[in-house]
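Hi R.,

Here are the chain sequences for the assembly we discussed:
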Amino acid sequence: MLLRVLPIAAALLVLAGLVLLPAAAVIAGAAADGSAAWWRAVTDPGALAAVRLTLLAAGVAVPVSAAFGIAAAWSLGRFRYPGQAIVLALVELPAGVPPVVAGLATVLLLGAAGPLAPAWRAAVPGGIGAVPGVLLATVLVTFPLVARELIPALQRRGTAAEEAALTLGASGLQVLTRVTLPGLRASAVSGAILCAARAVGELGAAAVVNRGLPGAAATLPVHVAELHRRHALRASLAVSSLLFAVALPALLGRRWARRLRAAPAPGGGR
Amino acid sequence: MSVELRGAGKAFGGAWALRGLSLAVAPGELVAVLGPSGCGKTTLLRLLAGLERPDEGQVLHDGAPASARALRARNVGLVFQQVALFEHLTVAANVGFALSVRRRPRREVEARVAELAALLGLAGLEDRRPGDLSGGQRQRVAIARALAASPRLLLLDEPFGALDPRMRLALRRWLREHTDRSGATGLLVTHDQEEAFDVADRVVILNGGRVEQVGTPAQVFEEPASAFVMRFLGAVNVLRGRVDGGRAYVGDLEFAAPAGEARAPAHVFVRPHELELNLAAVPGSLAATVARLVPRGAAVRVELSAPPHGERLEAEVDARRGAALLAALRPGLRVHLSPRRVRVFADPGAAAEPDSLTASEL
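And here is the predicted structure of the full complex:
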C-alpha cells in the first residue's frame, strides 16, 4: 500500500510544484489587472507583430521539417548505403546544438559580412532583415524534429507491408502514398506538433538573431523577455498567457497522435 | 504460368540461404515446399515473387527471365507468413488493393471484394480494420488480398499457421479446389508434412538451402533419397549397425545396402508401421524389450528398447488386426523385431549424428 501511495504522492507533489504553481502564477498575474489591461497588453502593436512573426515561423518550420523528415526517413529508414551512420548522426546533431549557437550561426551567415549576405540581398528586396533571420534560425533548430519521429517509426514497422503492396502490383509512388505515408501518419502528426511547439517557444536563437540583425523581429518569447526587461511585468505575463493557449492544443494533439499510433502492430492478431 | 529456377542461389551477408536450386513447376501444378526452419523456404518464395534477385542462376516465368517484367505485369499473388496487412485500411480496401492500384472501376473492385469475402468467410467484416480481427480472420484477409487480381502464380508462405484445425482443413481443401479450377500455379511453403501431402501434386524437400528431393508425396515418403528426407517425413526408427560391401548388418539381421564403403558404421532406418513384433523368436529378428504401450486411436504405439542397436524404438500395431498380439504385450516383455522394410543410406555423417532424433521425438 505504502509502495503505491508514496510514488504517486511524490509525483503529484512535483507536478504541483513545477507545473501547476508556476502556471497558476502566470495566469493569476496576467489576470490581476483585469480583462481590459490584459486586452491592451495582447493587442499592443508590438505584441501583435510578435504573434504574426511567431505564427509565420511555425508556419515555415513545420512544412520544412515535414518535407525534410519524409525525405530523410525514406532514405535513411528504407535503404542501406555506406556512410549512412554519418548521415543519421548529422540528422541528430542539431538537437544537440544549443539554440543560441544556431542563432549565432544565422547571424554570421546573414550578417553584413556573412557569405550568404549578397545572395539574401538579391533575393529579399529591402535588404536583410531580422525576419528572414528568425525564420532561418527557427528552421535550423526545428528541421530534424519530424525526421526524428519518423525514422524510428519506419524502422520499427519493417518492410513487410511495402513488399506486400509491391507484389500486389503497386508502383513505387503508390507504395509511398498508399502504404508508407499513411502508416506513418501518427508519427508525422506527433513530430509536426513537436516542431510547431518548438518553433513557437524558441527563445535562444530568436533573441540572438533579433539583436544581431538589423530590423525588429521579436517572436512571442522574445517579446515576453523584452517586456520583462523593461519592467512591464503585467504585460509580459499577459503575453505569456497567449503562449499557454498554444501549448495546450499542442499537448492535446500529441495525445491524439499517440492514440492513432496505438493501433495494433502489424502481424499482431488476437 | 510455369515457373522455373535454374541453379538459383541467394546469399545474405556472405552466407548462402539457397544454393544451386533447380526446380520446374508446370502451369496449374501445386507444389509444396517442405523443410525445417532456416532451410531457405521463404527465400525460395521471395525469389519466385521477384522480391529478391538471385545471386546466381536464373528465375524464369513462362520461360523468360522474371526480372524482364515489372512486378505488376508478372501478376503474382504472395501470402506472407507474417500476414503484412495494411493496418490503416479496411478489410475491403485491403482485399481490393491489387485492383485499385491497377485503377479498375470502383464497381468492379467492389464486386470482386464481395466475391472474395464470401469465398473466404469474411462477409460482414468488410468495414473493419485488421486490428479488430482475429488471427485466423487476418490470415484469410491476406489470402483474399493475394487472390484479388486473379494471379497466375500463387505463392503461400505458411498461410494456415494461425488457423484452428477445422479452418486449416477447410482452407487446404479450398486451395486444392482453387488450383484445379483456376489453373493457377501454386507454391505452398510449410513445415507441416501432413499439409504438404494433403494438397500438393509434388513436394520439394529443402535442407540447408539445397534440394534434398523432389517428387510426388508417395515418392518422397516411400523412396526417400536421403537420410534427411527419411527422418524429416514422419516417425522413423534408427538402428545402429554397419555396412560392408553392399550389405548392411544389425546384429544377426542382414539387409541389402547401397554399394560403397567397406566396414563402416551405418544407420538403418525403419518406419514404425514397418517394424513387425513377434512374441516368439523368428529367424532374422532382433530381441527387444517392451517399454510402454500408447493407444493412438486406430493404432497402438509400442515403445521398445533393443540395445545396443537402438534404445528408443517404436512399432505401430493396428489396434484391430493386432488385437491378439496387443493383448499379450506388457511393459518388460521380451519380444522379437523383424523389420519388413528398411532403408540404408550411405551417409557419412550418420554415425556421428546424435540419437535424439529417434522416432518418439519426431
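Chain A is about 80% helix and 0% strand. Chain A touches chain B at residues 160-161, 163-171, 174, 178-179, 182-183, 185, 263-270 (CB under 8 Å).

Let me know if anything looks off.

Best,
T.
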